[in-house]
Design brief:
This protein has 168 residues and is an alpha+beta fold. 19% of the residues lie in helices and 31% in strands. It contains three helices and eleven strands; from the N terminus they run ββββββββββααβα. The relative contact order is 0.20.
Length: 168
Amino acid sequence: MSYPEPRYLGENGEISAVHRPAETPPDLVRGANHTHYLATHAGTGGEFGLYRLDMGPRAPGPSTHFHRTISESFFVLSGSVRLYDGERWATRGAGDFLYVPAGGLHAFKNDSDEPASMLMLFSPGAPREEYFERVAEMAQRGGQEFADFLVRHDSYFVAEEEAGAVRK
């Protein structure tokens, strides 16, 4: 294994770190769910996107889907999160991690009576903020406009029975 080609060509390093204090309010509040934009694609130069999702009790998540251009990883910080890994749903708790490569079927939700929190990492970084902010509105509109929105945001949803057929 070798390291990637250098991207910083200076000799002495530079002051360029970005700090986000823990008390920073969430960037998006939708019902009982709070999304914190910890590191966006814009802030990382497209390297990755890191988001914290604080879910209220019984919070639904996206149904089974996959991405063609990005991987997605989940790290449970607190509570219980139901994660679908393309084969089965499993309840995961603090410290559990799930990596889903591009093309991997996945979904998540909080079906417990307690709040839950997790980190979501997208790599490479993609402009996910518009997706998070507008998906509910676009789903209500439906039709071709919603279909185009999903494709623009690299989100391809499949029915549970289709996901099961992929496994066979």
